[in-house]
Design a protein that fits this description.
Quinone Oxidoreductase, Chain A, domain 1, Rossmann fold, six-stranded parallel sheet, 15 strands, binds NADP nicotinamide-adenine-dinucleotide phosphate
Length: 331
Amino acid sequence: MRAIICEEYGPAETLISGYVDSPPLGPDDIRVRVHAAAVNFPDNLLIQGQYQVKPPLPFTPGFEVAGEVIEAGTNVTRHRVGDRIMALTRDGHGGFAEEAVARAELAVPVPEGMDYVTASGFYSSYGTSYYALVRRGRIQQGETLVVLGAAGGVGLASIEIARALGARIIAVASSADKLVAAKAHGAHHLIDYSREDMKQRVLELTDGRGADLCMDTVGGEAFNSMSRCMNHDGRLLIVGFASGQIPQIPANLLLLKNFQVVGIFWWPAVQRDPAQHQASFTQLSDMYRAGKLEPLISKTYPLEQTPEALKAILSRSLIGKLVITPTGDLH
Ligand SMILES: NC(=O)c1ccc[n+]([C@@H]2O[C@H](COP(=O)([O-])OP(=O)(O)OC[C@H]3O[C@@H](n4cnc5c(N)ncnc54)[C@H](OP(=O)(O)O)[C@@H]3O)[C@@H](O)[C@H]2O)c1
């Protein structure tokens, strides 16, 4: 099959486009014909040997896929050949290829009416956002949520889910065009933190109370500002460090302001409780079918152009998701 191959750790331009054997299938796995594979920041870490897991070389990167089940392992009862699914791939047999393997128990059905390109950009962004906001953040109708990195994949998903659940949303991003996208996806208020004082604006917009919830995918200075404008009983959700800076927090701030800092790591939570994961996606599918979620895919690339896509997500200008289309069949 055609695949992108990482023969040695390095930047995206060192990847090779070629042919490899179909990946082996374990008893609990499904083999997926990959119609679409979203590009995520950790794909860049994986190919550079900087991710927490290092598959043996050579391997095919691509964590997130949507496609059709073409073979099921002997223990698999959840999915059958022909099912349309979304999944994360396994052990270096990744999605930047015509076929990938995934653990059947953790794959979920593509919602009715959703094409594969959209589905590949839906799984981890909406899965992470739902887990963060609903399971960990216990978001309530009428609460005020601040979303940092609001035009990123997780940011836009969080805005849409929170809006569907009746929250008031303050979107924070670094440029006017990103804020336009955040508004189009449901944000009520906008802050450009490249030129506005975020803490002061959040306090103004909440009549001095501060945010009930914050989705922080950015870290660094943005986290420091948010930790100083959280409401009593607020939940500051630590999701990622896109700024490259892991912040510290003085414990007395938590005591004085009575708010919580909550760690979010979606994939281990999925593996720990697959039933809850499937239930979350039932809710997300219902929201999608009700027209409340509109995932934004800003560009698709053919398989051979995977390195360009990997480089593009490192530029801070991206809005929404980028997707590779290994088979060229998008529906
Ligand atoms: N914990 C989990 O389970 C989990 C799951 C999925 C993703 N994540 C992490 O969450 C983060 C966001 O994911 P995503 O898919 O939304 O990523 P994304 O689409 O690339 O968006 C990230 C956002 O971060 C902001 N940012 C701030 N400083 C940046 C910098 N120096 N370089 C690039 N972006 C910067 C950008 O918004 P502004 O320009 O507006 O600041 C950008 O839109 C990533 O770090 C990812 O690894 C964590």
